[in-house]
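Dock zinc ion; give full complex structure.
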Amino acid sequence: MLTALALLALAGCSGGGSPQDLARAAGTTSTSRSTSTSTSSSTTMPAPARVVIRYRIERDTDDAATANFASTVDATLHDPRGWTRAGFVFEEADNAPYTILLAEGPEVQQRCRPYDTYGKYSCQIGPLVAITADRWRSATPEWTADLHAYRQMVVDHEVGHLLGLHHRDCPGAGSVAPVMLPQSTELHGCLPNPWPLPAEVTRAARHDLPLAPGYEPGDPRDTP
Ligand SMILES: [Zn+2]
């Protein structure tokens, strides 16, 4: 956990713990349409059950470069290329249990504790997704696509953690990056990508992952 990548992973990844159950109970409404909630992976699964994710947006910045935060988050979460494919229905509400925050580095650092975001990384911890404003403004040197795609990627990546997903590796040079690859710091030869790959959609659509996981040391990985 001493490398920058590992630290980013720590800042973004998390897992088990009983608070998840509270968060899940408070934050979602499961409206399963079928009883076939399989625990095995399938590429031919039927339409996934619907799980409602209610969220609120908080922006603790006031500059022009971050003025589009709420509209970009909303559009990304509702985009048919995103986590909606896994059966998640995103609803914005003032009293929602989950918060998607944009703030300056020191505030993100404070609110992501015990993760250390070093004043620049984004994180998900429990019901909070926190995105650092400087990266919203200018992405990172390692990012090779445009700024709008970076913003979509960081939303989908951190919300992916909120949905219980962990990091994935780049499968090989020239491959499209999984959205759960920590693309902010290193693409490992993968092509930048803001949207979940089919395998990631399939994993999330099983709806067997704890939502809003709390702090978890280490960097657990999801594998195909
Ligand atoms: Zn992450």
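Observed: The beta strands are 14-15, 28-31, 50-59, 88-92, 98-103, 123-125, 128-132, 214-215.
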